[in-house]
Amino acid sequence: MAKIIALLNQKGGVGKTTTAINLSDILAAQGFRVLGVDLDPQGNFSKVISGGESRFESNVMSLFSRENSEDISKLIFKKNSNLFYIPTDIRLSRVIEAGLTLSFREHRLSNHLDKIKNQFDFIILDCPPNLSLTTTNAIVAADLFLMPVNSGVFALDGLEDLLSALNEVNQGKDLPYYVFRNEVAKPNKKINSAIDEDLLSIVNDRVLRASIRRSEDVGQASFMYMTLSEYKKGSVVINDYKALAKEVKDFFCNTISITKG
Ligand SMILES: Nc1ncnc2c1ncn2[C@@H]1O[C@H](COP(=O)(O)OP(=O)(O)OP(=O)(O)O)[C@@H](O)[C@H]1O
Ligand SMILES: [Mg+2]
User: Fold this and answer.
1) What is the number of domains present in the chain?
2) Residue 136 three-state SS
3) Residues 62-114 pLDDT 10s
4) Residue 239 above 70 pLDDT?
5) Minimal-distance CA residue to ligand 1 atom 30
6) Which of 22, 78, 79, 99 has the greatest number of beta carbons closer than 10 A?
7) Is residue 145 part of a domain?
8) How far apart are CA 43 and CA 55, in angstroms?
9) Is the C-beta atom of 240 inside 6 A of ligand 1?
10) For residue 248, what is the domain's CATH number?
11) Which protein residues have their CB within 5 A of the ion that is ligand 2?
12) What separation, in Å, do the N-terminal and C-terminal C-alpha atoms of the chain show?
């Protein structure tokens, strides 16, 4: 049964999509069956994972439309034998607005994913940089929340709001969230350590050991619509994503097993 992981942070440009892509890619390369779901109308996850497409006739947006009769398995695209995705494009933003009045609107995604959960080991949700309807759906659906923060001056802005949104949507449920640092640059050690102290005070001990270093390989790969391992097999940053993948697997420890497709 798939473990569902949401990449969350309403702050933009912190590394949600890049991490969703490369974490999916690495877990798939390790033999797990992975489904990536793009919940951001910007569609960046979809563009990269599809190798440059920006419009998708079958699209995650139909899960949020009024009829609610869509068969989710018809929306799944295949990248390789272990890596699958449900894409989106810019039209999702209109559907979200229209969906605000739907009943059980926050449970749409979770209910749909329940039907296909047994076909995957991991389902990775890439969220938009806001607390819109698709984000609240991801919050309801996910078993684990990963929040990238970068080392900018405003890195921690909004983290408290995000945590209270998690609490609000997930009333009473345990909140397995973890923060990890993205775009870590060694020369910025001073700033990094100042942030670490702030981070630790807001999120207690919920900071992952793994962090993703800053590297132009990451931007270049996305620019070429490639995962990092497709773009540069030997990139050192792949080791960072592997360390992140290991912590994710450790979090679920004995409860994951490889699904045969
Ligand atoms: N480790 C890294 N090293 C260098 N550049 C990075 C790294 N991680 C992300 N970036 C770059 O930072 C930018 C933002 O990354 P990304 O799109 O993953 O963030 P996001 O949180 O998904 O943004 P949004 O909130 O707009 O969805 C991209 O141009 C990406 O290439
Ligand atoms: Mg993104």
Assistant:
1) 1
2) helix
3) 998 877 678 999 999 999 999 999 999 999 998 888 877 777 788 999 999 99
4) yes
5) 219
6) 22
7) yes
8) 9
9) no
10) 3.40.50.300
11) 16-17
12) 13
